[in-house]
Design a protein that fits this description.
alpha+beta; extended; single chain; 37% helix
Length: 168
């Protein structure tokens, strides 16, 4: 009798699981009008200027497009774009306090040095983007606030890496 009762309970539970899940999700309905509307909305969002979407970022002009970096560092950041041997390099420098200019990063388009952080596709050609980071030697003339500012500027390279796919 116990085996029969266990079998009935198992069948009931199995039935509830199978048919209960179907009633929660309901029948599958395909609405092409809704899908087309959603696709159009996504297209409109992705074609908008990234600087308009996020005004806290500034653009660093390159021949491949604009690299995005936090605008809060605008007064302390200097960039220099160098074209040499088919490699486009964006050099990033910081001036904090009364200290001399510090070389933070080089972003190399189609270069071999550094660490690959992504790629851009221009006219069907994939161009790898590498990052070359420079160490900063702090001495006793640096205040704690100045050191933290430089470290924050170095950390904010993540904005540039995250938005790299906006190029090309």
């Amino acid at each position: 009798m116990k085996k029969y009762l266990a079998l009935v309970v198992t069948v009931i539970l199995l039935s509830v699981m199978l048919f209960g899940c179907e009633s929660e999700t309901g029948p599958v309905v395909t609405d092409t009008t809704q899908t087309e509307t959603q696709t159009e909305a996504v297209t409109e969002t992705t074609t908008e200027d990234p600087l308009t979407l996020n005004p806290s970022l500034m653009g660093i002009a390159t021949k491949y497009g604009e690299l995005l970096y936090p605008k809060r560092w605008n007064d302390m950041l200097r960039t220099n774009v160098v074209e040499k041997d088919g490699i486009s390099t964006v050099e990033m420098f910081a001036t904090v306090g009364e200290h001399e200019e510090i070389h933070l990063y080089d972003i190399l388009f189609d270069g071999e040095d550094g660490v690959c952080i992504g790629a851009v596709t221009i006219d069907g050609v994939k161009i790898y983007v590498n990052l070359l980071s420079y160490d900063v030697d702090f001495d006793e003339t640096w205040t704690e606030e100045e050191e933290l500012t430089v470290l924050a500027m170095k950390e904010d390279i993540n904005y540039l890496i995250d938005t790299l796919n906006e190029l090309g």
